[in-house]
């Protein structure tokens, strides 16, 4: 029907408002503190009644006038926490769209290897996007683009914050929902110098940015400092200033330090060091015949 949207859209917007407006003590506290009801939109009787209405419409597959859903989005857009609410609503609508995909299809996608699961997941996202959001999901090069002819949230908040609703829904469906078993970055490894770049040394500011990005995603950083001390001299700083940006640091004592062979790995976390020692004892390292025997080197005349 022209000028209508699936009930899942206004439902997710109001559910996000209610979730944000519920006080820290939970819903039980609302019953005893009338002040909360007066000051928070999500706790009003009207919003609660509308949520029930939209849930019923969703069960009956009834459409909602688009101006009604846009009115809710405009109310959200006036709030200082509009960005968080639109993002949360997008995640919520993704949850509901995911649950409406048959359990069998979800299971097939989860057990298949990534290269087979991704096309199937994309097909489900296309169907869900068109059915529930009135959106066209398509590939453009290596990117996935979601296009909405009649957006409920566009122009309802400054700085196009309303677009976060659709962006969050797409991101949540493609990542945490349909492809939870996809390979994730487990470690970031950074070299301090690069022979292929003429021995160029990574600036400390660049290393700090790598560390910040890794911290944001909870990924540890290993600094491959084969020539750590050479890099420190080139930057005019101590080796410790470089090492503090990593969870572990490796350096070679035969490069610039005068030893014939050998490397050292230093870790800030004792538990990580124990796991590394355990792994080194069971992993099939390359044949020892390719390495010089340290004992023979040490006793060489």
Task: Explain the overall architecture.
- The protein is α/β, with parallel strands linked by helices and 301 residues long.
- The protein has 2 domains: 4-177, no CATH class; 188-285, 3-Layer(aba) Sandwich (Aspartate Aminotransferase, domain 2).
- It has 14 helices and 10 strands.
- Strands 5-8-9-10 form a 4-stranded mixed beta sheet.
- Helix 6 (82-99) packs across helix 9 and helix 7 (103-111) packs antiparallel against helix 8 (114-132).
- The protein is elongated.
- The relative contact order is 0.08.
- Mean pLDDT is 80; it is low at 32-38 and 285-289.
Descriptive tags:
alpha/beta; Aspartate Aminotransferase, domain 2; two-stranded antiparallel ribbon; 301 residues; four-stranded mixed β-sheet
SSE ordering: EHHHHEHHHHEEHEEEHEHHEEHH
Count all strands and give the number: 10
Give the domain tally: 2
Number of helices: 14
Rough outline: elongated
Main sheet: strand order = 5-8-9-10
- Mean pLDDT value: 80
First-to-last CA distance = 90 Å
Q: What's the quaternary structure here?
A: single chain
Provide the gyration radius in Å.
28 Å
Helical residue percent band:
40-55%
Biggest sheet features: 4 strands, mixed
Beta-strand share of residues: 5-15%
Secondary structure class reads: alpha/beta
Low confidence ranges: 32-38, 285-289
């Amino acid at each position: 029907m022209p000028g209508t949207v699936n009930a899942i859209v206004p439902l997710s917007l109001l559910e996000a408002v209610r979730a944000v407006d519920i006080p820290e003590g939970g819903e039980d506290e609302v019953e005893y503190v009338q002040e909360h009801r007066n000051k928070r939109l999500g706790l009003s009787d009207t919003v609660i009644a509308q949520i029930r209405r939209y849930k019923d419409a969703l069960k009956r597959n009834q459409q909602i006038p688009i101006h009604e859903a846009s009115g809710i989005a405009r109310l959200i857009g006036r709030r200082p926490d509009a960005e968080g609410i639109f993002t949360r609503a997008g995640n919520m609508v993704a949850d509901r769209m995911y649950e409406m995909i048959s359990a069998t299809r979800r299971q097939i996608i989860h057990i298949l290897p990534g290269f087979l699961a991704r096309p199937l997941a994309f097909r489900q996202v296309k169907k869900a996007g068109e059915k529930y959001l009135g959106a066209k999901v398509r590939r453009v090069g290596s990117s996935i683009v979601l296009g909405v002819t009649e957006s409920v949230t566009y122009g309802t908040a400054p700085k196009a914050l309303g677009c976060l609703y659709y962006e969050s829904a797409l991101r949540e469906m493609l990542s945490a929902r349909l492809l939870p078993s996809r390979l994730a970055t487990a470690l970031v490894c950074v070299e301090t110098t690069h022979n292929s770049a003429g021995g160029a040394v990574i600036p400390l500011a660049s290393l700090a940015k790598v560390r910040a990005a890794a911290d944001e995603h909870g990924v540890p950083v290993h600094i491959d400092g084969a020539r750590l001390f050479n890099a420190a001299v080139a930057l005019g700083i101590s080796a410790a200033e470089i090492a503090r940006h990593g969870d572990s640091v490796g350096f070679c004592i035969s490069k610039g330090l005068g030893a014939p062979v050998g490397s050292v790995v230093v870790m800030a976390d004792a538990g990580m060091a124990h796991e590394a020692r355990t792994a080194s004892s069971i992993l099939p390292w390359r044949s020892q015949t390719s390495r010089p025997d340290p004992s023979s080197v040490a006793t060489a005349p």
